[in-house]
Structure formats: C-alpha cells, structure tokens
Amino acid sequence: EAQVTQNPRYLITVTGKKLTVTCSQNMNHEYMSWYRQDPGLGLRQIYYSMNVEVTDKGDVPEGYKVSRKEKRNFPLILESPSPNQTSLYFCASSLLGDNSPLHFGNGTRLTVT
Amino acid sequence: GDSVTQMEGPVTLSEEACLTINCTYTATGYPSLFWYVQYPGEGLQLLLKATKADDKGSNKGFEATYRKETTSFHLEKGSVQVSDSAVYFCALKDSGAGSYQLTFGKGTKLSVIP
C-alpha cells in the first residue's frame, strides 16, 4: 500500500532532550516536506527536500534540522526542543510534477514540557 | 507571494444541508488548485484538484471549479452527511514561481449534526 509513515504518533519529552521523528515513503517520491499544524495558524512548512542530499528551509525552520540521505526517508530532528515546539507535525511527499498532490502521514503529536 | 484565503470556521450544518466553503487565491503563475480534507486524528488527504481555468474537480459528492477571473476555488456539496465532519484546506501549487511548494489556507472546520 502506498503510504507515508511517521513515527512515533505521540511523543512527550522535556526541554532540551534531543529527539528525532522519522518519516518514510514507499512511492519513490522526489519531494518530501515537514509541516507543523497549530490552532489558528493552519499548516506551516518547516523544511522540504526536492531530492536526495537537497534540503531547503520552509517558513518556520528555526529549531529544526532535517536530512535526506536516502530517497525514502526524511527525518525531522529537534536538537534542543522547547515548549513552543509543542505541536502536531506532518510529513508529506509527492512527485515533482505541477499537478502532483501531496501524500501525508498520519501525524506526530509532540509535547515538550 | 502566493496566498490562499478561505472562509473562517467553524461551520455547523444539519445533515442534508448544502455546503459552500469559499476559497480565493493570489499567485504569480498559473497554479494548480487543491482541496484537502483532514478527518479527526488523521493526516490530510486529497479530496479533489483542478489544474487549469474552468476545470471542475469532483470527488465524494464534493465539487469545486477553478475560476481564473475571480481567482476562486469554492468547495460545494449539495447534501452533507455526518461523515463529512472534518477540517477542509484549500491549497495551491504554483510551479511558475520556480518551486513545487504547496501554499495552504488556514482550514475550515465543518461539523455536521444529525
């Protein structure tokens, strides 16, 4: 089944403790992206990647890192999480074509205390 | 830059009522337009899309027509069901701007009551 898989679904951590949220897609998509969703703010893009070893900042990259060593994986790294990074995070992927829709994972709800 | 404006929610309707969620956009190129739906506890999934002016996207009884003259892509359904309760996002992809980024509206929460 074609899908984007994020793990974990729920994560509670403390300020400053490094964490990684994994994202994997099995559709051979070139494009992958991370979003955070907050009430009243909608979806905001954190980072994106248009191919292996190519990553770019989105609208809200501060406090996050990503890597794209393989086409299928695009982990999101929080080196030193802070409470303002408490949010619902989504990974998404697509082909690069104009009409290609994004496929989303089911989300990771992160709480930083 | 590109932007998407959709009507603020929440929207509460009775079952079998008509639904319209307004969406307007600004874009530098000739964007493709999308509606995504997010059911409780899930990620977003594509509901329908339209890639050029006057195209009509449709799926699950929902429709939206790409109106270039009014820069709009309003979502409509003639008779909503309780199972349509979700958050709906309008979005555009403007490759004419030199990227493949998707720009989202802020979402409209729809609740349908029996």
Q: Average pLDDT of chain B, to the nearest integer? A: 92
End-to-end gap of chain A: 36 Å
Note the total helix count of chain B.
0
Shape of chain A: globular
Judged by helices, strands and strand pairing, the structural class of chain A is mainly beta
Indicate the proportion of strand residues of chain A. Answer: over 45%
Q: Helicity range of the residues of chain B?
A: under 10%
The total strand number of chain B stands at 12
Measure the end-to-end span of chain B. Answer: 41 Å
The main β sheet of chain B shows up as: 6 strands, mixed
Topology (elements, then pairings):
The complex is a heterodimer of chains A (113) and B (114).
Chain A: E1 4-7, E2 10-13, E3 19-25, E4 31-38, E5 42-51, E6 54-57, E7 65-66, E8 76-78, E9 87-94, E10 103-104, E11 108-112
Parallel strand pairs in A: 2-11
Antiparallel strand pairs in A: 1-3, 3-8, 4-5, 4-9, 5-6, 7-8, 9-10, 9-11
Chain B: E1 3-6, E2 11-14, E3 19-21, E4 23-26, E5 32-38, E6 44-50, E7 56-59, E8 62-65, E9 75-77, E10 86-93, E11 102-104, E12 108-113
Parallel strand pairs in B: 2-12
Antiparallel strand pairs in B: 1-4, 3-9, 5-6, 5-10, 7-8, 8-9, 10-11, 10-12
Describe this structure in words.
Chain A is mostly beta strands and 113 residues long. Chain A is built from no helices and eleven strands. In chain A, the strands form two sheets. In chain A, strands 2, 4, 5, 6, 9, 10 and 11 form a seven-stranded mixed β-sheet that branches. Chain A has a four-stranded antiparallel β-sheet with strand order 1-3-8-7, with no helix packed on it. In chain A, a hairpin with a 3-residue loop joins β4 (31-38) and β5. Chain A is globular and about 40 Å long. Chain A starts with a strand and ends with a strand. Chain B has strands at residues 3-6, 11-14, 19-21, 23-26, 32-38, 44-50, 56-59, 62-65, 75-77, 86-93, 102-104, 108-113. Chain B has 114 residues and is mainly β. The A-B interface holds A 4, 31, 33, 40-43, 45, 48, 50, 90, 92, 94, 96, 98-107 and B 32, 34, 36, 41-46, 49, 51, 89, 93, 95, 100-102, 104-107.
